[in-house]
Amino acid sequence: LAKTTQPISMDSYEGQEVNITCSHNNIATNDYITWYQQFPSQGPRFIIQGYKTKVTNEVASLFIPADRKSSTLSLPRVSLSDTAVYYCLVARGSGGYNKLIFGAGTRLAVHP
Amino acid sequence: ETGVTQTPRHLVMGMTNKKSLKCEQHLGHNAMYWYKQSAKKPLELMFVYNFKEQTENNSVPSRFSPECPNSSHLFLHLHTLQPEDSALYLCASSQGLAGNTGELFFGEGSRLTVL
Q: Which residues contact B39 (CB under 8 A, 6 or more apart)?
């Protein structure tokens, strides 16, 4: 499965847009890109998943360029409650076995 | 509330004790997982079950013994643990094993301390 690389930490302020980029140079044709959020002492929570171009839901947007070697999670107008660790994962799609491997993630701190 | 319930939430045990962690999912999923999260470390995948059959054992020591009696329940039996096994143990479930079927649903975790 493709290895992912993302920044260890980021800082932002309330009301700003935050973009977290993840690189996955060895992504395969059948792989999907998924992002999770984790608060301290809780299990990760699914945020968004995409294959290519742009996906948007009520929480975030996910931008994936044509070569799919990277992806960017965009959080609009963050608040203090968005302080968490964000994980980018690459998961094998239909027809393949999936082993969801979490990396170190990006620790986002939102300041007042 | 994610539909995945883990008990107990906190457990303290000695190295010679035998204890079990329990996970139950109410989502109708067929795949269940155990992950371990040590302090300041990424989540480590331990075991994967699909339709009650173990499909992945990620080189986990035998002092951790999983059991999946049905698609809704998953146990992790603990025996002769070491202090370095102290961690947050997370259970998750998913509809299928394929990455495009959506998300993993995680429980709140069981915080284990081995003395």
A: B87
Q: Chain A partners of B113 at a C-beta cutoff of 8 Å?
A: none
What's residue A94's pLDDT? 59
Tens of pLDDT, residue by residue over A63-95, are 999 999 999 999 999 999 999 999 999 877 655
Chain A residues touching residue B54 (CB < 8 angstroms): none
Pick B102's closest partner by Cβ from A31, A36, A49. Answer: A49
Set of chain A residues whose Cβ sits within 8 Å of the Cβ of B106: 42-45
Nearest-angstrom CA–CA distance, A80 and A15? 9
Q: Facing residues of B66 across strands? A: B76
**Beta-carbon separation of B88 and A41 below 8 A:** yes
> Is residue A32 classed as helix, strand or coil in its secondary structure?
strand
Count of alpha carbons within 13 Å of B34, Cβ hemisphere only? 30
The pLDDT-based confidence of B98 (bands split at 50, 70, 90) is low
| Span B21-70, pLDDT tens digits | 999 999 999 999 999 999 878 889 999 998 888 888 888 999 999 999 99
Contacts of B12 (CB under 8 A, 6+ apart): B112, B113, B115
For residue A91 the two structure tokens come to: 């998961």
